[in-house]
Design brief:
Order of helices and strands: HHHHHHHH
Distance between the termini: 37 Å
Structural class: mainly alpha
Shape: globular
Radius of gyration: 17 Å
Helix content: over 70%
Number of strands: 0
Amino acid sequence: MGSYGYVFTSTVLTLWVILDPPGLLPVFLGLTKRMSPKTRNTAARRASLVALGVTGIFGLLGRRILDYLHVSVEALSVSGGLLLLLVALQLLTGHFDETPDDDAPESNVNVAIVPLGTPLLAGPGVIVAIMVAVQGQSTLQGYLVVAGALLTAMFGVWLTLRFAEVIRRVLKEAGITLVTRIAGLLLSAIAVQMMADGILGFFGR
């Protein structure tokens, strides 16, 4: 049982470090700036569920999916980086601040699925991490332990995003705008790094 405890702990910590919910908070606050508290909570829940679903699917069928589509992890990293770069540019230019009605249902769904659910949460790093964790198990109990670790990590993500409103009240409107611009800058750097890792991965084969 000790080995399963190690698998659970190491998997949760690995996913938590890659997910980095505290680092995602500025981006989340920027994307949901014009939403009501209730709508923002809905977006947090949906984003967490989308990330859980995408990561879980890749944990079960990831290698088969990529092989079937003839897509490499490196290609996934580059494409995810390009998508994040577009989001970063929107944050830097204030595009999301100008959305006329962020309380519209379709707007909430779009933000929760892309970019929050994927690729910000369920990105190449998390997908690869869960695939490796699953491949390292050979018993049903081991698979259940990895599944429990994934649920725990995503629950922590939801809790972090759920209480983002507390941070919003502390920072006020001007603080949120400043944090949004900084988040855009940092997110652009993350996007470039993801693309660079993917490109270097191609040459490193």
